[in-house]
Write a structure and sequence with these properties.
The strands form three sheets. Strands 3-2-1-4-5-6-14 form a seven-stranded parallel sheet, with helices on both faces. It has a four-stranded mixed sheet with strand order 8-9-10-11. A three-stranded antiparallel sheet has the order 7-12-13, sandwiched between helices. Helices cover about 40% and strands about 25% of the residues. It has two domains: about 170 residues, Rossmann fold, CATH 3.40.50; about 150 residues, Dihydrodipicolinate Reductase, domain 2 (2-Layer Sandwich). The longest helix is centred in the last third of the chain and has 21 residues. By secondary structure, it is an alpha/beta fold. The protein has 14 helices and 14 strands.
Length: about 325
């Protein structure tokens, strides 16, 4: 069967990771990249793949005839606008990660995809995404709430979405946001208390910000701590640093997380604990690899008549795998 034809829309750290992941697959091929900064991207990728301006979406679909576009923009400003537009002309997959706005994004993508006969798989990072599936499975098996924690190490985990949200504030040149799990909150869940946490009870947020010379630091600080869906519910610390300090302290993009649920089974009340822990040396590359697997699933959904929006909860695991059914039955069950 011919390889699935893939386009990358948006070329930052995640888009770069998607290109690298595609190069390691045998059933998919990259046929083009679209970016707001095509000249920058051309300097990086050379003649290896055609690069066009993001605004020319209809033209590149006609030229490249992709099966799916992997949308690699930010969740705060890019995907809510680009997603509904691009799904009009091609099947899409994205990693929209604002939990509080996820239903809104799903319905916008679902309407645009259905009206144009395409499939759109949304929110396919590791959370939302893989952790969403783990939470649902743990709840189905134990009948209790499953909790997601992020940033289990002392340094915490680097959040791309929250860092992108910081960089969108006027007067911010660069920024990184680290999420820290509250250790006692994790232990309370493991003990089976099933606490009714508020969002700020489970995590704290650490922001390192490079501000423009002369920027109003008090205004920036206020915008950060009051930003709905990102920082408003959390204990947030803000430190203003130089670009050199940021580069030195924030090498790489590590992140990790844990889904945990604790309950009992049977009439005797036997204890049961379900945990899923992931550790990523590179958060954007982790998201990219998950996106590529879901790009494969998106094409398969579309080929089987799927239209509208989907999440990881709607997708058979076999659709994500490059392996055929016989291989899965023989060696992976």
């Amino acid at each position: 069967m011919a390889k699935m034809r893939v386009v990358i829309a948006g070329y930052g750290n995640v888009g770069r990771g998607v290109r690298q992941a595609l190069a390691r697959t045998e059933d998919m091929e990259l046929v083009g990249i679209v970016s707001r900064s095509p000249e920058r991207v051309r300097r990086e990728v050379g003649d290896a793949v055609p690069v066009r301006a993001l605004a020319d979406s209809a033209a590149w679909v006609a030229e490249w005839q992709p099966d799916v576009a992997v949308l690699c923009g930010g969740s705060k400003q890019d995907l809510p606008v680009q997603g509904p537009e691009l799904v009009k002309v091609v099947n899409t997959v994205d990693s929209f990660d604002n939990h509080s706005r996820l239903p809104e994004h799903f319905h916008a993508m679902d309407q645009a995809a259905r009206e144009n006969g395409h499939a759109a798989v949304i929110s396919t990072g590791w959370d939302p995404g893989v952790f969403s599936m783990e939470r649902v499975l743990a709840n189905a098996f134990l009948g209790v709430r499953a909790y997601g924690f992020y940033g289990m190490t002392p340094k915490g985990g680097l959040s791309m979405g929250h860092s992108d949200a910081l960089r969108g504030i006027e007067g911010v040149l660069d920024a990184r946001q680290y999420t820290h799990a509250v250790p006692e909150a994790v232990e309370r869940v493991r003990r089976g208390e099933n606490p009714d946490f508020q969002p700020g009870d489970m995590h704290t947020r650490e922001c390192l910000i490079v501000a423009e010379p002369g920027a109003d630091l008090d205004r920036i600080r206020k915008e950060v701590v009051e930003m709905p869906g990102y920082f408003a519910p959390y204990r947030t610390t803000i430190e203003f640093v130089t670009q050199e300090e940021l580069n030195a302290r924030c090498a790489g993009f590590p992140h990790d997380g844990l889904v945990v649920a604790a309950g009992t089974t049977g009439d005797a009340g036997n204890s049961a604990n379900v945990e899923y822990h992931c550790r990523w040396g590179s958060n954007p590359e982790a998201t990219a690899n998950i996106l590529v697997a879901h790009a494969r699933a998106t094409v398969r959904l579309a080929r089987h008549g799927g239209k509208g929006a989907y999440t990881i909860l709607d997708i058979p695991p076999a659709y994500l795998s490059p392996l055929d059914r016989e291989e899965l039955l023989a060696h992976w069950m």
